[in-house]
Amino acid sequence: MATGNGIRVAIVGGGLAGLAAAMRIAEAGHSVELFSVVPVKRSHSVCAQGGINGAVNTKGEGDSPWKHFDDTVYGGDFLANQPPVQKMCEMAPSIIYLFDRMGVPFSRTTEGLLDFRRFGGTLHHRTAFAGASTGQQLLYALDEQVRRYETAGQVKKYEHWEMMSLILDGHGVCRGLVAMERSTLELKAFPADAVIMATGGPGLIFGKSTNSMVCTGSAVSVCYQQGARYANGEFIQVHPTSIPGEDKLRLMSESARGEGGRVWVPRQKGDKRQPSSIPEKERWYFLEEKYPAYGNLVPRDIATREIFQVCLDGYGVFGENQVYLDLTHIPAETLDRKLGAILEIYEMFVGDDPRHVPMRIFPGVHYSMGGLWVDFDQRTNIPGLLAAGECDYSIHGANRLGANSLVSCVYGGFVAAPAAIEYAKNLQRNGADGSKVYDDELKRQQEINERLLKQSGAENQYVIHEEMGKWMTDNVTVVRYNDKLKATDEKLLELIDRYQHISLNDSNMWATHALPHARQLQNMLQLARVITLGALNRNESRGAHYKPDFPDRDDENFLKTTIAEFSGEGPVFSWEPVDIGLLPPRKRDYSKGGKQETKQEAVVASAKAAGLPPKEGAKQVPAEGSEMKPKDLSGPAVWGQNKEQVRDVDHGEAETRTERGHEIKDAGGKSDKL
Amino acid sequence: MSAQTSSNIEHQHGLKNPPKEVVLRIRRRERQDAEARWEEFAVPYRPNLNIISCLMEIRKNPFTRDGRATTPPVWEMNCLEQVCGICTMVINGRARQSCSALVDNLEPHKPITLEPMSKFPNVRDLVVDRSEMFNHLKRVKAWIEIDGSYDLGPGPRMSQDEVSERYAYSRCMTCGCCLEACPQYGDGNYIGPQAIAQVRLMNMHPSGKMTRDERLSALTGEDGITNCGNAQNCVRACPMSIPLTKAIYEENRETILYGLFGWLRK
Q: In this predicted model, what pLDDT tens digit does every residue of A148-174 receive, in sequence order?
């Protein structure tokens, strides 16, 4: 094996973040052991649909990394530490270009350049996309590069191996991990100079979510239970548009709205008519009405609450918890080219053709902004343990903007890789090779497994999982009340108690899922408490965390990061100030049309105030009149999106426009500039 | 939000004469070297059930249809959106993803049969080991040889038409449906359409083209591209509608040209 100067890094998780780190470490000449529950090409990153953000500014809109930074921090309701967000936004264009070089089939403009679409929480076309399966395409590109290093002997994959625990020495330093092979159930200790966690989100704690079935948060919970700090756990993103199903909530990408999709309900409660026979004036485009500038592209937490409220008020389609997401005004050819993959998903699982019938959607648990606490180099508080991607808390604050997750995964991996190498170079290795720490941890894990195998209680682990999911979904998602949060924690304690009495129900232990699931369940229950109690403690509303009893953001008391540390008695909480040195917090309000303009001024002003060189912020703010002006977008409610749409599909699709009852000239000056 | 969210949309669809229960016949095997056997299960019918939901129901309560306690059937699943490829199995005789196999579309009045794919080693029950597919990708060097992952600016310009063609190949999720359907594939005698399509994907790229010959040479061995029997089952079996036969045609042409020039160079 080509081992450089002998550095060996273990990476847990083979999604975008894990593969990005693996590629970088191998490229630097070191060796990687990559652990993944599923073959890495089947990781949850494949589910990301809409695109990846980067202010490449090819649309003449005067976009810049500074504006990307501003949108991200503002969209996250100022809870993110700003320096890493700024670094990510600066790196983003080069990340997109790298994937372009690696062969990702990004959609193109007529000039053969990368095309960009709009996404939520910004007024710019900033999202590069490969059809509507961008995550799949990006993951495959990294999978290919890592396979290249695997063939060269620098990366060794342990697919179908699940991490069970960290190996910590007497000084609390991470020396490797214990993993279990999923067919033989063999447990093995793997020494490593550093471990990078890249295991994604914990959606399965909520039972059904848009997450893949491996997204249990189990490995991260293990780290927490072994002393890693877990930050901002209470911030769980509920995506506004998912397709409810028996087995999971399937994602309907934000790109559907980015390409002009409109959310509406009939103005008349319980209207029994089919959508096509409801005339325009009897439709309530509630997002466009309330948020003229951003329209259907308000950030996800806001769209989710609005949809939720509309249904709560009885306006849901056919009296049910569902609203329309309508693409039928866009020509089928455009839809196929830009959104084909997601329309197929809807068609396949619901049976309607969204090109002709509006989709029916409802919010679903989607993403965790919280995660392992890391410093600006992706290092956790445990020496030798790093984290990247959705499993760390660092970038998204209180709410993640659409298409920022893919870029944050790659950024996290790219920062974690050199940080791990740097750490390993300075590591005192003597003593770590003594086998005792490895043997002890291996033995501890074997004992846990043996206990579970012997247990013969009356409880069913899948029933406990289902109950946890229902309680968490009912009480710890869109709207949160303190009494219900307390009751949920009591329920979790009950479930933790009942968990002691499960039996595995499988007499054949070869390749069984019963034992791995039982291990995951215990870890999910512990992490569920962190999420629930974190929410209970935070008596304000910020981003995705909304309490009707405390409806406002409270910077004085809660502009701080929640930190949970494990103890036998449950999580112990402390708080840490947020680094807001670059951009002073301001009220988050997407309902005002002229906001963008003042925002740009604020960015420049704060850049100056922070003593930063104005190279990014100042230079790239376009001269007056040379870019998309906010007032162009703030006309009558239905117009904001319409103009975007017309602008986007400006290939002479007169039909679209007449269908919507507007004339072509209403596209404004936009098309002239293209 | 509440659990009522889950079942609402399903009301609107479903069958006119739904059966009371869905019967599933599952081909089971305890371990690689054990004999296979059939077991029959029943789950209550609900509209819009997919095969995964049925299996989850059985797992929660592992009793056969005649009330005998058994081990929960083991299968693989992950994304449940037909994009990760992991949950592929043979359903009523056809290889496909179990997440997107809706009971309502499967004649639910008759028993539905579930079997593991036959072209790959059977691990247990419905789980197979498809690692040979990833080995194919190593062999044909299915990657772009970039100089490094540092910042070197944008990639080559391409037209949307070129991108669209590549995009179709790039959607391959390594599920194995094409290999299960291919009469030539098995026992290591043919590399199969999956890898050939990835050669096409890489060879079409302006940078990938520069190392085209290495990939073509990987396709010319004894188990190479010429073993395609032109049954065209692959293209019909592909859940992602990848133009596999076109890839085989194009790469066959390239290997012939490559072979020709290789001969001239001698």
A: 999 999 999 999 999 999 999 999 999
How many residue pairs bridge chain A and chain B with CB atoms within 8 Å of each other? 244
Hey, are the CB atoms on A212 and B11 less than 8 Å from each other? no
Distance from CA of A100 to the nearest CA of B (A): 5
Enter the ipTM.
0.95
Q: Which of A46, A213, A364 is nearest residue B77 as measured by Cβ atoms?
A: A213
CATH number, domain A437-539: 1.20.58.100
Statement: residue A462 has pLDDT above 50: yes
Cβ of B167 within 8 Å of Cβ of A478? The answer is no
Confidence of residue A433 (pLDDT cuts 50, 70, 90): low
Check whether B8 has a pLDDT greater than 80: no
Decide which of A1 and A572 is more confident: A572
Q: Give the tens place of pLDDT for each residue, A88-120.
A: 999 999 999 999 999 999 999 999 999 999 999
Distance (Å) of CA A414 to CA A69, A229, B195: 18, 22, 30
CATH fold of A8-48+80-97+134-237+366-431 reads FAD/NAD(P)-binding domain (3.50.50)
**Cα separation of B183 and B185, whole Å?**
6
Average pLDDT, chain A: 88
> Out of B50, B145, B152, whose CB is closest to A247?
B50
Task: Say yes or no for a CB contact (<8 Å) between B138 and A151.
Answer: yes
Confidence of residue B12 (pLDDT cuts 50, 70, 90): very low
- Are the C-beta atoms of A192 and A204 separated by less than 8 Å? no
Q: Which two tokens stand for residue A103?
A: 């062969």
- Summarised one tens digit per residue, pLDDT across range A255-274 is 999 999 999 999 999 999 99
Question: How far apart, in Å, are the Cα atoms of A455 and each of A421, A500, A501?
Answer: 43, 8, 7
Nearest by CB to residue B83, choosing from A47, A350, A466, is A47
- Which residues in chain A are closer than 8 Å to B81, comparing Cβ atoms? 47, 248, 250-251, 345
Interface probe for B, chosen from A24, A42, A148 (most Cβ of B below 10 Å), is A42
pLDDT digits (tens, 9 = 90+) for A178-237: 999 999 999 999 999 999 999 999 999 999 999 999 999 999 999 999 999 999 999 999
For chain B, list the domains and their CATH numbers: 14-128 (3.10.20.30), 131-265 (1.10.1060.10)
d(CA A9, CA A384): 10
Chain A positions in Cβ-Cβ contact with residue B72 (cut-off 8 Å): 505-506, 513-514
pTM exceeding 0.95: no
Options 3.90.1210.10, 3.90.700.10, 2.60.40.10, 3.40.50.2300; CATH of A240-364: 3.90.700.10
A300 is annotated as an active-site residue: yes
Q: How far is CA A640 from CA A61, A217, A428, A632, B249, in A?
A: 16, 39, 60, 8, 48
Name the residue facing B163 among A108, A474, A505 (closest C-beta).
A108
Min distance B264 CA to chain A CA atoms (Å): 31
Residue B14's pLDDT band, with cuts at 50, 70 and 90, is: low
For a pLDDT cut of 90, what percent of chain A falls above it?
83
Cα–Cα distance for residue pair B135/B132, rounded to 1 Å? 5
| Contact flag A136-B157 (C-beta cutoff 8 Å) | no
**Contact, A221 vs A162, CB < 8 A?**
no
Contact B83 A137 (CB under 8 A): no
Specify whether the CB–CB gap between A540 and A547 falls below 8 A: yes
In chain B, what residues touch A320 (CB-CB under 8 Å)? 8-9, 11
Annotated domain spans of chain A: 8-48+80-97+134-237+366-431, 240-364, 437-539, 595-673
Task: State whether A349 and B50 contact (CB < 8 Å).
Answer: yes
Q: In chain A, which residues have their Cβ closer than 8 Å to the Cβ of B83?
A: 46-47, 133, 136, 341
